[in-house]
Amino acid sequence: MAPTSPQPLDPQSLPDHDNLPDNPHAYCVRLTGPLFVQTGRMIAYYPAGGGTIRFEPLTATSMTAMVAARFSSPLYSRDWVVADGQGHVLLGDRGYDINSYDLDDGNLTVRAANLLAFDAGLELKESIIPGFLTLLGTGKFLASSSGPVVFVEPPVRVDPEALVGWADCPAPSQHFDAGWMGHFLGAARGALFGTRSGEERQYDFTGAGTVLLQSSERVLEDPHVVRRLEAEVQQLGPNQLRHLAGVIQSELQQHQQ
């Protein structure tokens, strides 16, 4: 092996709760209790003391009471597992940066696609904002981001695609710029979907707290958005379905341009 090759890691050299050395894209957790992990994010693990680490789907777990008390989000229950045992677990998320956060009797709402793992000291609920989850209590969690995370204070307006989450402040409202609203109010011209710049909608944060932004507008794909829309489509009538089909067709045309 060349003298400049990276030093291989082993259970003695792995960090207990930190990114791997010189690697912001992989994180090592030392298990001391149950850890909720999003499916597909575990890249390796080292059991300790000749034991094992179990990864149980939430829908088939032996820890039913604990899961029911800590995970209150049926929409996402099929996409998470509980890791339990003793040892080290390495996590990654498609090459995105990974950071650890501590909550101390607090609350933080994070984009569901960015949430990688959280310990059983925290309780998870669905946010009233679609695509976001809220963590409550005291404990650690991991989240990924496209580039380093930027922390800002309200009042602030942020691009929805750059938003990772927010802590200790009210849920945001949506703000549309005056130009877009003008087009919307004059939609009889039929050019509504052809005039967007991509910057006309922002989330508007007010009050005290902290807003977390990633360093780009690159959004992690969230399969749950489609799942939620599928459930809501069943409540629509024929006229509403035809209108929705037109909206989807317009969106597809925008992506093909």
Notable characteristics:
single chain; 257 residues; alpha+beta; Double-stranded beta-helix; 11-stranded mixed beta sheet; 4-stranded antiparallel beta sheet; 18 strands; Trp_RNA-bd_attenuator-like_dom; AIM24; AIM24_sf
Low-pLDDT regions: 190-194
Q: How big is the Rg?
A: 21 Å
> Major β-sheet, in short?
11 strands, mixed
Please trace the helix and strand order, writing H or E for each element.
EEEEEHEEEEEEEEEEEHEEHH
**CA-to-CA gap between the ends?**
49 Å
CATH architecture of the domain at 18-146: 4-Layer Sandwich
The quaternary structure here is single chain
Compute the number of strand runs.
18
Question: Taking all residues together, what is the mean pLDDT?
Answer: 87
Structural class: alpha+beta
The CATH class of the domain at 18-146 turns out to be Alpha Beta
Q: What portion of residues is helical? A: 10-25%
Annotation field: number of helices = 4
The CATH topology of the domain at 18-146 is: Double-stranded beta-helix
CATH homologous superfamily assignment of the domain at 18-146:
Mitochondrial biogenesis AIM24
- The coarse overall form would be globular
Strand content: 35-45%
Task: Describe the structure in brief.
The chain has helices at 64-70, 178-185, 223-233, 238-256, and strands at 17-20, 23-31, 35-38, 42-47, 53-57, 71-72, 80-85, 87-92, 97-111, 115-119, 122-126, 132-145, 150-152, 156-158, 163-167, 173-176, 201-205, 210-213. It has 257 residues and is α+β, with helices and mostly antiparallel strands. Among the domains are: 18-146, Mitochondrial biogenesis AIM24 (Double-stranded beta-helix, 4-Layer Sandwich), CATH 3.60.160; 224-256, no CATH class.
